[in-house]
Amino acid sequence: MDHCIVAAGTPSTAAAGAAVREVGGNAVDAAVAAAIASWVCEPGMTATGSAVLALVRPAGGEPLLVDGLTAMPGLGGHVSDPPGGQRVVMDYGPGVETGIGPGSVAVPGGPAALGLLQREWGLLAWADVVEPAIRLAAGGFPWPGVSAIYFPISGELIYDLTPGSSRIWRGDGGRPRRKGEVTTLPDLAADLELLAEEGSDVLYTGPLGERIGSWITENGGALSPEDLAAYRVEVRKPLLGADHGWQVAMADTIGGEALGEIVAGFAQVKPGSDGEAGRLVSVMSAALHRRDQRLARASASTTQICAVDRDGNACSITTSTGYGAGVVVPGTGVMLNNMLGELELLPNGPDVLQPGERLPSNMTPMVASRGRCAVAIGAAGADRIAPAIAQVWRGIVARGESVEAAVAAPRFHVRESAGEKYLDHEPGFHPYEVGMPVNPFQSPHMYFGGVQAAAVYSDGRLDAGSDPRRGGAVIIG
After folding, report:
1. What pLDDT shows up at residue 94?
2. Going along 19-131, which residue ranges are E strands?
3. pTM, whole model, 2 decimals?
């Protein structure tokens, strides 16, 4: 009998999670295996040198937040030159300025966070959950559509910065890889084999971390072997709320606080009531305004994995490398983050943080639970993450929709530009009496986030939805 369900950003990612269930893994094993696989088969969205934020609800237990966010480097006494990396402007939306190169690299927390997740709440050996990613990197995977869209925008500016990163996105003759093109990453496969054999510590206190940290500091960055060795994953209680009899657990990030406010506000609006659309828009507008007054946004280059099993385990993992530093250290296959260069998150520059301090984030995985029932939800999508999650959750809990239908349902987003608010929305959302300029999209669009969600109900029924806006997939194991 099917025991576990996985929702992820690509079929390859989801299949990696389902594969470990076939050898006795639980939902946490599946989510971790899928997240590691995403570092292979979702280039530009995430990578090994990433941030990870996860919520886990062990069967019969309370939810916990696993914080593998990136940290400020500098414990080795090094300073980035220039601070935050060299500036580039991508033709992405209205134009995005970001920092790249060695000076943009923060201390990655992703491998350490996934190692702890699997060790504490998984059932399998660590090598078992890394193995599917090794097979993908060595044997090949289809180049995903979302990467085929992102790299023509970012590739020349960012990913051609070092030969290792250029080889990831360019195929035969140096041309950009096409959607569906079978891609192998042999250097990354070798690193993952080392990760499988020696554990996640190999990136922090082992030879892989030593090689990466030494090269970065020699080439003008602040990330040193000392920073990697000092990194620690944090596990703590999440933010908790209540909605329709469910306990809702969220990250204590800026994005999580906005999500909590939107969920609570949406709960006061009855589906089908008079002025429903306008009231929902008002709730979102107020919450996002308060969020943006504090910091604002997160990178668009993010992916999400959710898994649940019939025992009641639930896990939601968000992972990101920002826009990417364009740096793969020679002799490795590890793509590194550019979190120090994300001006949206660090408007006053990276120097306001102390070495070892966590960088701010808008990521916010979520797990809702009610007795034996559990729903894991999360999203990619920059400043649309919290709004997208809240809308899907409302569809499930207030409208009684299947998870798949709730994920596919029309979405809206309130954005602010030059002091004026605008409503963006997909077809099917009817913005009556919203009191702001309206920008209708002609079809569902990845702008409105890439949501993954998976649910297990009291009768053991499994349900999941993967966002068609970003080519996601659901696989039962």
Report:
1. 59
2. 51-57, 64-68, 86-90, 96-100
3. 0.96
